[in-house]
Design goal:
0% strand; mainly alpha; elongated; 4 helices
C-alpha cells in the first residue's frame, strides 16, 4: 500500500507539477511572465461576466423574465 501512495506522489511531484515549478523559477526573472496564466484566467472571467450581464439585460428589456414573487411554490 505504501508503494501505491509513493506512486501517486511521484506522479504529481515529478510530472504534473513540473510546469508550476517552471513558473516559480520564471518569477525571479519576470513577474509578468510568471503571472501570465492568472492574467489569462482573469480575462476569460471578465469576458464571461460581460456576456452574462448583456444576456441578462436582453431578457430584462424583452420582459420575458418572470419576476413574480410567487414564481416558486416555497415563496407563497
Amino acid at each position: 500500500m505504501k508503494a501505491f501512495f509513493e506512486g501517486i506522489q511521484t506522479l504529481f511531484v515529478d510530472f504534473l507539477f513540473k510546469p508550476l515549478d517552471g513558473l516559480r523559477s520564471l518569477e525571479l526573472v519576470s513577474w509578468f511572465g510568471a503571472n501570465t496564466l492568472n492574467w489569462i484566467f482573469m480575462i476569460i472571467c471578465s469576458a464571461a461576466i460581460v456576456y452574462w450581464i448583456k444576456q441578462l439585460r436582453i431578457f430584462d428589456d424583452a420582459g420575458t423574465e418572470n419576476q413574480d414573487t410567487t414564481a416558486h411554490s416555497f415563496l407563497k
